[in-house]
Design a protein that fits this description.
heterodimer; A: 325 residues; mainly alpha; 11 helices; 0% strand; B: 97 residues; 3 helices; elongated
Chain lengths: 325, 97
């Protein structure tokens, strides 16, 4: 009997490439966004097949979920005229090439080059896995991916938090958030859904966060789920109390980076090596960083979907609608 | 025995997905197509979940599977409702023979 794995992989790969082509080639942007979301979900499936459930979780939650929401919201802000890609008149010789020529020439040549290169590569089947596993005891966590992300390469994760905050700063400096979800009369069904899902999403995101210490999961996945919860609550007609969008929101958005920086500073002062945790405190420090990172990621992602800085409270020149993150 | 049950339930789910896809492609208006797709989601997925229940190793997995189905049911129904509602408000015509 033939093993079904490779057949499934082949179908998955073909579908992914077809989807990628369709979403790039189509004129209708809405269609492209929907295709992008399905592309993200299938990419997550591909990560599962590659044995990387951590990346799969992140891809499904962030690549498909939050990015999809961002794109849809962005699309909603465009006028109907801008929703179609304009046909660009070919300017250079390269642009004049038809898709058929591209496929016939480029894909085979890329494939040949890749094959030639791949033949030179030595197969290192386990990468750094052995090294990481041998050091797992001192890392303060039982999951190798978390050990790498928050201990061995914590520096990268720290910078990642900074990038996220920077992205939000960029978004906030562009525009004031307009209320996104002011559907005429709110559907009671949607309200019910948000009431049912919000507690579940909070619990699951807490579970994912906790699970990060011994299995796939962690701050990014948990934060993405939590931000989905925030957005769902916003869709269900909830909004932040009026005193929230000022300092509290800013503190929540930056607490992930701040706590991480604090830990960096403390380790720098005590050990003279940044982010070199004392072994007995490693587990606590990692958990601390991850809890605040989850909150910050959730707030930042949800605020990014809202698409602008919160309305200022004291200016009454416009009947300022209540704003949620 | 459990293998056979899994197989039968999986086979039983196929017609629903097939019919749902066919309906999505061939039905005349948005409301009919929605109807077709939600059938595939609800019953097709339900049968797949039931098939997988027989392969579960622990109660945890069984609860996870059932919860997945339940959440997809609720979300699917809500989304179908929202799409149909928006379409009605936008004045999409109902299909008449």
């Amino acid at each position: 009997m033939i093993h079904p794995g490779p057949i499934f992989d082949l179908i998955l790969m073909t579908t992914l490439i077809t989807l990628a082509w369709l979403l790039l080639a189509g004129k209708d942007l809405f269609r492209a966004v929907v295709l992008f979301i399905s592309f993200g979900l299938l990419t997550a499936l591909a990560w599962v097949r590659l044995g990387a459930p951590d990346v799969a979780l992140a891809e499904a939650a962030i690549g498909a979920g939050i990015t999809g929401a961002l794109l849809l919201v962005g699309l909603g802000k465009l006028g109907s005229a801008e929703r179609c890609r304009r046909t660009v008149r070919p300017a250079t010789a390269l642009q004049r090439l038809t898709p058929a020529v591209l496929i016939a020439v480029i894909i085979p040549s890329v494939a040949v080059i890749l094959l030639l290169e791949l033949r030179q590569l030595k197969t290192i089947s386990f990468g750094q896995q052995k090294l990481v596993l041998s050091l797992l005891d001192i890392s303060g966590t039982d999951h190798p991916v978390t050990a790498v992300l928050l201990n061995f390469r914590a520096w990268d994760t720290l910078l990642e938090k900074g990038v996220l905050l920077l992205a939000l700063t960029g978004i906030w400096s562009l525009d004031q958030a307009h209320p996104l979800f002011h559907q005429e009369p709110l559907s009671p069904v949607l309200k019910g859904l948000s009431q049912l899902y919000l507690p579940i999403l909070i619990i699951v995101s807490g579970a994912l966060l906790w699970q990060g210490s011994y299995a796939p999961g962690g701050a990014f996945q948990a934060g993405a789920l939590l931000s989905a919860g925030i957005l769902l609550a916003a869709l269900g007609g909830r909004s932040l109390p009026s005193y929230w969008p000022g300092l509290p929101l800013r503190l929540l958005a930056s607490c992930g980076l701040l706590v991480f920086l604090l830990v960096t500073a403390l380790t720098l002062l005590t050990n003279e090596l940044p982010l070199n945790y004392p072994q007995e405190l490693a587990a606590v420090l990692i958990l601390l960083i991850e809890i605040f990172a989850t909150v910050a990621i959730a707030v930042i992602l949800a605020a990014a979907v809202a698409g602008g800085h919160p309305a200022e409270r004291h200016k009454h020149h416009s009947p300022s609608p209540e704003k949620k993150p | 025995m459990t293998e056979l049950l899994t197989l039968l339930l999986l086979l039983a789910s196929l017609p629903f997905f097939l019919a749902g896809t066919l309906g999505l492609l061939r039905f005349p208006d948005l409301y009919c197509r929605l109807h077709a797709v939600t059938k595939a989601d609800n019953l097709g997925l339900g049968l797949v979940v039931m098939a997988l229940l027989f392969q579960a190793d622990s109660w945890r997995q069984i609860v996870h599977l059932l919860l997945t189905w339940l959440l997809v049911l609720v979300a699917g129904a809500t989304v179908a409702h929202l799409i149909a509602r928006k379409a009605r408000d936008d004045g999409h015509q109902y299909w008449r023979r």
